[in-house]
Amino acid sequence: MEKSKKDALMNCGSLDELLNVEFGNVGTATRDEFDRETEAFCLARTLKEERKRAGLTQEELANKIGTKKTYISRLENGKADIQLSTLFRIFEGLGKRVSLTIL
Questions:
Q1: How many domains does the chain have?
Q2: 82 part of a folded domain
Q3: Distances (CA, A) of 82 to 5, 12, 34, 50
Q4: What is the pLDDT of residues 37-73, one digit of tens each?
Q5: Using CA atoms, how far apart are residues 81 and 71, in angstroms rounded to an integer?
Q6: Least packed by Cβ within 10 Å: which of 24, 45, 85, 94?
């Protein structure tokens, strides 16, 4: 890592400053990609946690909502995109509701 970037990272006073140095300011292509990947990761973790909380295996959840275990696995590992209708079906199968906020 170049010295100027290392110095900039070391002088960050907040998470936002650190993200700006590492990934660019909000609205730049690099930062937008990082933010999308972060949101996908958080969704995948939430799905996995809720499935486990419901006491279901990936296979049991897949059978319950009419999909395949491999698809659930790929979602939980961030290796597949999810359609909104499927997202609603999955969380409905877990006894949860999904609420979207448009900002």
A1: 1
A2: yes
A3: 36, 35, 18, 16
A4: 898 899 999 999 999 999 999 999 999 999 999 999 9
A5: 10
A6: 85
